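ok trying again, last paste got cut off:
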Amino acid sequence: MATDTVTVERLIPAPPERIFALVADANRHQDIDGSGTVRAAKGNPAPLEQGSTFGMSMKWGVPYSMVNTVIDLEADRRIAWQTRGPGNLGGGRIWRYELESVQGGTLVRETWDPTTEAWPGRLAIGRLAGLTRRNMEATLKRIEEVVAGAA
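nice, full thing came through this time. structure:
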């Protein structure tokens, strides 16, 4: 399964703290989602922190919901959450953003790690890797557009 992990990178001409503030705000995930599946955060989640749980309304053909738990966080450097379906059914993949301050801005690395995906979702992982990569590239582009507009 490790070969199914997808990572994309983009140099974004903005400081890490501006990018981190965006990805650590579940209310803004619809603004940056390159897949078009994120509809809205459920409830009114505060800025995310280690152990935070937040819901997300999604739609991929049909509407559904996910519950996400922040499993790794270092302010302005990285954040990761693990997805689960309602009642912990399905899901299990991990989304991670790593931010590295470099000359010219921030190297943003997004990783989709399905190695902990629950069945039956695991059956589709190999077929989703290419689509996921394209969606992640679009997400990083959208992050750049959002933070550039906030300058």
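cool. The CA atoms of residues 68 and 83 lie 4 Å apart. The mean pLDDT is 88.
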